[in-house]
Specification:
The chain has 148 residues and is mainly alpha-helical. It is 47% helix and 4% strand. It has a single domain, classed as Nucleotidyltransferase, domain 5 (2-Layer Sandwich). It contains six helices and two strands. A two-stranded parallel sheet has the order 1-2. Helix 2 packs antiparallel against helix 4 and helix 4 crosses helix 5. The longest helix has 25 residues. The mean pLDDT is 90.
Amino acid sequence: MGHNPLPWATESERPAAPCYCGKSGCVETFLSVAGLARDYRSRTARHLTAQEIALAAAGGDRCAQECLTVYQDRLARSLAVVINLLDPDVIVLGGGLSNMVQLYAGLAALVGNYTFSDGIDTPIVRAAHGDSSGVRGAAWLWSTASPT
């Protein structure tokens, strides 16, 4: 879903940053490590990594906290579209930012604000093996593939 437009984009989110796919406003440009760092840099003119932003937020940096709040709202909007369209049994988040435990606090309630429902019961969980989940899955598929 990374190369679909950010749902319910606000005026402050337009015009959106260009994406490497050639379009602009893709979810990927907002919900990536680079997107979080760009958001923080646009507010402070300081260059921090996503991990440094998370640490700054935990240390009381109001701007870093605001960036994470905005990030969480963007994530909620994006996940709501998935739930509205597919009604999945579970949503598993992967990638580097999925390791930020603070992003999960209150996320379901935020998603509920954007779904076409009175509430959601779709669990939103971190990938069991963190950043390595995709690689592990690919290795498993490779090892179980029948020779041709």
